[in-house]
């Protein structure tokens, strides 16, 4: 370009000022063009002795990576691109990128899949097997060169390690569990259980716990180690547990077992499978790509695009680093690891069949970009942004720990830069995660600042969809996400969950009350910037849609559509919640502080406020909109909602999920502001075509039931007691209650002991004169995981516990 223009020089040689402008323009043009880029190609049929051209490609990404390094060594500064042609590439070790391989903002380093074909980077190794019949159903084959197999795949399907009880698709938790998984009469059958695993739920169902079996002791009892995966330790759950990788439990089609002592793999084919035709892959690596730098020498401007990452090994036994008094322990690794980076990312990729985390952004990172990805069928969390405790002032790690007030560092904010900030997780479809570990999230944030989480669709997760583990250091924006089918295997949690056990927090509430009264400025020492939650759609049928737990402070929450679980604010400060719609549920304030400065106003609620031990009501809990006058009056008994009002929102199309208020609704004139309902979730065409949508339940709260209407409820058929005949048959004092008409065997109602003819008169201490009241009581208390019902039978009240799992 420049030589072509140089003939103009003679025309301006007598105008020095024009010459200067001309020279500056030339410099700018050169800068914008940069040194010409170099592209290397990789193909499974290539050779590492090749030149890396499309006609003579390399056979490995490592060879192309080395070629880029050699070009940099001779001074090349242009844009580098590695293009992977379609195929599956099996890695012998993780690909590690250092600071010396960095790109620049003007010339980023791109590693991408070629257009129009699938490119897989596999952490596994293909097995060449000579199968022999072992017994009537079981086959066996010798495996060469592998010390262990932690995960196995056949023809693209993840296989089940020999386990008890056998795996059942869709059964929660764990795909099946059994109280007798560790029964002595079962253990005695196991000749060599060492190398097997116990998986169990936390006794409070706050995540999962995992143990490695080390053998048997002198008495024949099972010996094992582990249980450190939860930062709120407990005994393993008494019934929700299973064992795997034990030869004697190999009894179901699709199960396998690897005997390390003689390098033999055993497998029972599924119906219709020809074992000799199956392509087996054994997982071997826990990570595929690692970018490793530090604050002084970061890896910069490297991006991975359009690649599929598969076959990492499970890492649940390495999940043991305690995370700053949250309930979490973590392992700082993933299929892709960012550690010490600036302006790096993974985009339009697919993560599937992974044993651990998909993407982990650890310690110092700036402007990481995790966008446009499909993340599914993985053992751990999808995307984690987790800083270093070295950046935290006065850190404490376990729930029960605290820093004495006399030793407290009272300088606001972080003390170092070893944490992610100004990063983004956008347009990711996340589903079927936590297949092994249960204390996981679609997006996990801890010891980080200003993380943007927007336009993600997250569902089928065992715990939260989005989790913020502490207040350090806030400034996050959570917006336009679609999060549902959450807390499927655990309890006491939310589709969105947070904790805020920061410097001011103390496990003894009385001590904490005194500290914040004396030192109110300590409240925001860590949560220095406001976290915003807006314009999301949340649904949690086993907890809260939005759950701000222990100490969560400095939040602004507005324009969210909550479809089932309502909104909870436990102890914390400076939460402003307004203009949200809480469908079939309401507001759950728990154990608030004095002078919390909390605000809850102009929200649409469909139950009475469900307070627990709230004496001090913050700055404002008023001007909210109720659908039922009974709920408003029940709420006013706490001395709040003097200006609350009852009205008909006239939802535009609630059955289709459009809860916009109709133009004639008096709630609009009273201050509620309509917001967009459907601009949530993923936006790219590829992911939108794949994504599900949440169930939209009928408006059972705030509505009415027709005379004689039969209602399906937890597997049974119920109706209101409506006639003198029904009253007389039940022996009631008046026409009231909910009549149990039908109770199929094995339904939740049957398991709770209910019978046809029973009448439900109360739920969790609330009278249930009709089905509407029962629905409201359920909505207010279902987060507990069970309901205590007062059932009229044989002329007296019986207390029945209905499990909601």
TrEMBL record:
**Signal sequence region:** none
Matches recorded under PROSITE patterns:
PROKAR_LIPOPROTEIN
| Superkingdom in the source lineage | Bacteria
Q: Which InterPro entries match?
A: PDZ_sf, Pectin_lyas_fold, Pectin_lyase_fold/virulence
What's the protein name?
Right handed beta helix region
Q: What is the source species?
A: Parapedobacter koreensis
Lineage of producing organism: Bacteria, Pseudomonadati, Bacteroidota, Sphingobacteriia, Sphingobacteriales
């Amino acid at each position: 370009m420049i030589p072509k223009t140089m003939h103009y020089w003679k025309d301006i040689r007598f105008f020095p000022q024009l010459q200067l402008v001309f020279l500056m323009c030339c410099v700018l043009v050169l800068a914008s063009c940069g040194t010409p880029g170099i592209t290397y190609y990789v193909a499974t049929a290539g050779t590492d002795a090749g030149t890396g051209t499309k006609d003579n490609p390399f056979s490995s990404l490592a060879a192309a990576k080395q070629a880029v390094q050699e070009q940099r060594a001779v001074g090349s500064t242009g844009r580098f691109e590695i293009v992977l042609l379609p195929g599956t590439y099996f890695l012998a070790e993780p690909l590690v990128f250092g600071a010396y391989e960095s790109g620049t903002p003007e010339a980023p380093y791109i590693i991408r899949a070629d257009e129009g074909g699938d490119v897989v980077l596999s952490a596994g190794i293909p097995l060449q097997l000579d199968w022999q019949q072992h017994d009537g159903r079981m086959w066996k084959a010798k495996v060469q060169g592998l010390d262990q197999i932690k995960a196995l795949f056949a023809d693209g399907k993840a296989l089940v390690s020999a386990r008890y009880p056998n795996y059942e698709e869709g059964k929660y938790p764990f795909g099946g569990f059994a109280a007798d998984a560790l029964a002595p009469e079962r253990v005695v059958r196991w000749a060599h259980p060492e190398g097997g695993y116990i998986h169990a739920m936390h006794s409070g169902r706050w995540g999962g716990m995992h143990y490695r079996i080390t053998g048997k002791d002198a008495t024949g009892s099972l010996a094992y180690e582990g249980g450190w995966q939860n930062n709120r330790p407990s005994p393993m759950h008494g019934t929700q547990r299973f064992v795997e990788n034990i030869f004697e439990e190999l009894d179901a089609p699709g199960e396998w077992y690897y005997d390390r002592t003689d390098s033999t793999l055993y497998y029972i084919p599924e119906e219709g499978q020809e074992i000799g035709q199956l392509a087996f892959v054994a997982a071997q690596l826990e990570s595929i790509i690692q970018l490793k730098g530090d604050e002084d020498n970061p890896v910069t401007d490297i991006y991975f695009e359009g690649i599929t990452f598969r076959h990492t090994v499970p890492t649940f036994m390495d999940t043991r680093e305690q995370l700053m008094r949250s309930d979490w322990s973590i392992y700082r690794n993933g299929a892709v690891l960012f550690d010490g980076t600036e302006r790096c990312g993974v985009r339009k990729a697919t993560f599937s069949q992974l044993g651990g985390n998909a993407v982990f952004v650890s310690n110092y990172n700036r402007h990481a970009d995790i966008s446009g990805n499909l993340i599914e069928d993985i053992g751990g969390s999808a995307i984690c942004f987790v800083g270093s405790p070295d950046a935290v002032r006065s850190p404490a790690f376990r729930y029960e720990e605290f820093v004495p007030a006399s030793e407290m560092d009272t300088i606001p904010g972080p003390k170092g830069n070893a944490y992610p900030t100004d990063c983004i997780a956008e347009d990711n479809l996340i589903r079927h995660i936590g297949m092994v570990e249960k204390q996981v999230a679609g997006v996990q944030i801890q010891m980080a600042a200003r993380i943007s989480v927007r336009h993600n669709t997250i569902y089928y997760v065992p715990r939260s969809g989005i989790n913020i583990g502490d207040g350090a250091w806030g400034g996050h924006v959570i917006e336009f996400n679609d999060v549902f089918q959450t807390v499927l295997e655990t309890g006491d949690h939310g589709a969105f969950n947070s904790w805020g056990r920061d410097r001011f927090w103390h496990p003894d509430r009385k001590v904490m009350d005194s500290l914040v009264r004396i030192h109110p400025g300590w409240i925001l020492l860590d949560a220095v910037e406001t976290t915003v939650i807006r314009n999301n759609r949340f649904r949690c049928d086993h907890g809260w849609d939005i759950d701000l737990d222990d100490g969560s402070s400095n939040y602004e929450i507005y324009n969210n559509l909550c479809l089932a679980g309502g909104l909870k604010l436990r102890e914390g400060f400076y939460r402003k919640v307004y203009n949200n719609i809480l469908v079939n549920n309401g507001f759950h304030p728990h154990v608030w502080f004095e002078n919390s400065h909390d605000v809850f106003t102009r929200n649409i609620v469909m139950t009475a406020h469900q307070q627990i031990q709230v004496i001090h009501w913050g700055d404002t809990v008023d001007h909210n909109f109720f659908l039922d006058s009974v709920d408003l009056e029940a709420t006013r008994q706490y001395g709040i909602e003097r200006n609350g009002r009852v009205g008909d929102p006239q939802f535009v199309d609630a059955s289709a999920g459009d809860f916009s208020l109709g133009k004639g609704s008096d709630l609009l004139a009273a201050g509620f502001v309509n917001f967009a309902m459907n601009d949530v979730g993923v936006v790219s065409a590829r992911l939108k075509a794949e994504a599900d949508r949440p169930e939209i339940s009928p408006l059972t709260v705030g509505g009415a039931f027709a005379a004689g209407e039969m209602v399906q409820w937890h597997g049974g058929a119920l109706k209101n007691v409506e006639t003198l005949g029904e009253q007389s048959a039940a022996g009631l004092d008046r026409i009231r209650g909910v009549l149990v008409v039908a109770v199929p065997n094995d339904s939740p109602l049957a398991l709770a002991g209910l019978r046809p003819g029973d009448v439900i008169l109360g739920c969790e201490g609330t009278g249930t004169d009709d089905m509407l009241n029962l629905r409201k009581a359920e909505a207010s208390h279902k987060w507990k995981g069970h309901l205590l019902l007062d059932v009229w039978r044989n002329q007296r009240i019986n207390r029945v516990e209905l499990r909601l799992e």
